[in-house]
Amino acid sequence: MKEYTGWLFDLYAHPEKGLVVWLVGEDGRPYRFHQDFEITFYVGGPVPRLRELWTFLRTREKVKLVRTTREDLFDGPQDLMEVRVPGPFKYQRLFKQTRECFPDLIYYDVDIPLSLRFMAARNVFLMAHCKVAAQPDGNLIDITALDVPEELDPQLPQLRKLALSPDREPSSKTPPRYLLAKYGGFSVRAPLDKPRELLALLNGILSAYDPDVIQTRFGDTWLFPLLEELSRQTGTPFHPNRDQSVPVLRRGEVTFFNYGRAHYRGPQVHLRGRWHIDVENCMTYGAYGLLGAIEQTRITGVPLQEMARRSPGAGVAAMQSLTALRRKVLIPYQHQKGEIRKTYAQLVRADRGGLILQPPIGIFANVAVLDFTSMMASIMIEFNVSPETVGAEDEAAFEIPELGIKIGSQPGLMPQTLKPMRDKRLAIKRLLKSLDKKDPRYRSCRHRYKPVMDGLKWLTVVAYGRLGFANSTFGRINAHEVVSYLSRKVILQAKAIAEDRGFTVLHLYVDSLFVSRPDASAEDFQTLADEIERETHLPIELQKIYPWFAFLGTRDNPNISVANRFYALSADGEHKIRGIALRRSDTPRFVANTQTQILNILAKEPDPARLAGLLPEALAVAREQLSLLKKREVPLEELVVSQTLSRELSEYSHFSAVASAARQLQLRGKSPRMGQRIRFIYTGPGTAHAWDLPVAPDPRTVDLTRYREMILRAVYEVLHPLGMTEKMLRDWLFGGASYVMSVGELGSSDPTKLALPLFNDIKYLHVDSL
Known about the structure:
- It is a single chain.
- By secondary structure, the protein is of the alpha+beta class.
- It has three domains: 2-145, DNA Polymerase, Chain A, domain 1; 161-326, 2-Layer Sandwich (Nucleotidyltransferase, domain 5), CATH 3.30.420; 349-579, B family DNA polymerase, palm domain (Palm domain of DNA polymerase, Alpha-Beta Complex).
- The N and C termini lie far apart (82 Å).
């Protein structure tokens, strides 16, 4: 027997070896182990049917059957049949046959990922620092974790990375000509029209450099299918797996709705013994990168190649299952507990989301943003809210009379699942906050911890939604409603505390407070945050103090505010911007850049009383951008609009611009799907030209009027809190004259006067001809 030390890198089922485990050793070398791994599931139902199942299964080779009692999360102890299958491959076939022959029985622990079963059985986790004992033939004897998932600064391996990307997007007008490869300090450009040389180069890199991670652009949907086809045509072998004894794992494309939006996930290529990450086919990977994905896989138990591509909700579901396995609680097969009955009055009080207070329109001085850290997860932890605790009737239960519900005192599944993750994220946030930004350590710590914090944030955000998700194994709508109710109660309590201290609460948005007091210092705001945390027992952070904060109105009626459209600018570049053009994914780059330039001009002035003095400079930028557009000097790529197909093309009754562009691509042999983003340029009223067609649109056909209106809206969007009306803006931008602005007359009928609600006195500012 020999011992190895390293990191648990990958594991999967093998047709002959049972379970294969890969370790990245402390010496940087990969090690492959294998072991037999028994799979257990449970079956419940009427005794006569279970006897029939016993007869059906006992003839199967090496299947073990045992009568047992196990704990159901909601219904307590259950008398069940325990079925033990000798290996993962046999289990898949056996359960399919069993389910087809006995669909009326109740099944538990049947659709659990192999990685979670292994982690629960061996008390380890993916990317854990481990000690492994194995026989000379690679048979795994024992594995022991040397760290824990919650460790603040875990030791991680130095992974060897290979980056592969085409020289241009595969969907572009001109197909890619080269494949760019970067690894170990080297950069190589290989021509795609020489397939034998290309495959020989990649095989050489895989053999000599032996990367742990292959990170690609369009690897799932273009590169690996292309390489496989070139290998078939030329007869040159190409096998990107580190484990050559099994084929590459392929998964089909998926379209789905999530939070009311259509999503598309292309076909996937997962490797064995090394990771493949296609950054163009991932949901949230771009927000946190490899470090954040490693953190997520350590916490959730979902293999990294899958975690990088899937939604964070899949990670939370895996965490719940892992907690259940470790608590020896049954995991039902596609089952959700029913809703607790309520009266009409209770329904009205319960069926609401988080609390939102509409802000006043305008610009306000000295505004601080206070954020409850992982508020919904913290409420579940503090109040023990979980699907099985909601509705419990034990003596120590916490009662919510308004909802007619009690919350049991026994530790809940969700709080136990979320607390380690929430505490780790909170500890990282407070560590970074404790460092002065001028401290040399701050930059390195932020570089190290920011991806980890972002990866954890996505998991805590979706944990709340999982409680009410219809397909959640451990979901229950009543638990979701309780968390929403408590969040409203807590945020109102925080508002009352702030107002008692003389602060004005300008805005509430579920878990954030926007508070202002002209004479308040940073210490005053921090004292407020500390008092709110003491009173509510939930962690809250003073996010930032802004010299001024602008709340915006709707596009149709600027006198009606919008909860999630605002901007706050600061000289250090740490702006807070929500809902405006540059933050929307369907805004052309030219329009977003115009708005960004104007915001950068406003950010130079910390005194809100002097913002009016920057209007001439801001309007000059707008006039210059409009002039470039009118002269058709804007590069076409900066006018490209990107929108998502909200349904399949066949389901459109009226072809909008995005559907029209998708139809053009379809006629060229492409297959646009629901959830995919389609790029196009507006070329006339109700018409568009797909950007990814082989032929570029004629610049003379660009709909200048449409783009001019987009720029006008983007400029007006950020200037109207200063008192700007759309009519004034049009006159100033397209009139070409000199005007005098009267500051202090909001709503003046004279279009040459601009009223700024920031001032009580009358001031005049001459705007030279633009």
